[in-house]
């Protein structure tokens, strides 16, 4: 049974900065929030908690000189209640408030419709798309396997 998300309880949201982010490094439930990369360092995160348990989190890391990329995870039993959208909005507002001189962006696969919808509902617009191809020889090889 899904856990009920409390609507707009500011005290249920908690921000994490700098070194405070590292505590989530090996938590599989939140593997899309942070990169733990020296090349693209994590900047900040926001979590939503119920009874002191984090059920959703969004984080951002540097992505080039002018962007920061947002990643998000919601526990499976707490999805489809608008929490992802709220976390994206909170994180985006904090990025803008901190005046990081960076544009928040998100990247996901077209098949990840829940993520796409969460960002669209948070006010994001589709900015670009990418399609990748494999060499024909590789595809032919896979088709001819028995």
Automatic annotation (TrEMBL):
Q: Which InterPro entries match?
A: Acyl_CoA_acyltransferase (IPR016181), GNAT_dom (IPR000182)
**PROSITE patterns associated with the record:** GNAT (PS51186)
The GO terms describing molecular function are: acyltransferase activity, transferring groups other than amino-acyl groups
* A Pfam family it matches: Acetyltransf_1
Q: Which residues form a coiled coil?
A: none
Pinpoint the N-acetyltransferase domain residues. Answer: 1-146
Spell out the protein name for this chain.
Answer: N-acetyltransferase domain-containing protein
Q: Which organism is it from?
A: Enterococcus dispar ATCC 51266
């Amino acid at each position: 049974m899904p856990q009920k998300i409390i609507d707009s309880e500011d005290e249920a949201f908690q921000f994490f900065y700098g070194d405070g982010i590292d505590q989530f490094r090996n938590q599989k439930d939140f593997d899309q929030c942070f990169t733990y990369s020296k090349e693209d360092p994590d900047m900040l995160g926001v979590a939503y908690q119920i009874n002191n348990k984090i059920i959703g989190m969004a984080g951002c890391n540097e992505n080039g000189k002018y962007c920061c990329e947002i990643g998000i995870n919601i526990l499976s039993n707490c999805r489809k209640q608008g929490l992802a959208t709220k976390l994206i909005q909170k994180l985006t507002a904090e990025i803008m408030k901190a005046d990081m001189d960076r544009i928040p962006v998100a990247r996901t696969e077209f098949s990840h419709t829940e993520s796409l919808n969460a960002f669209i509902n948070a006010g994001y617009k589709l900015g670009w798309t990418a399609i990748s191809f494999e060499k024909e020889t590789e595809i032919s090889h896979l088709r001819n396997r028995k």
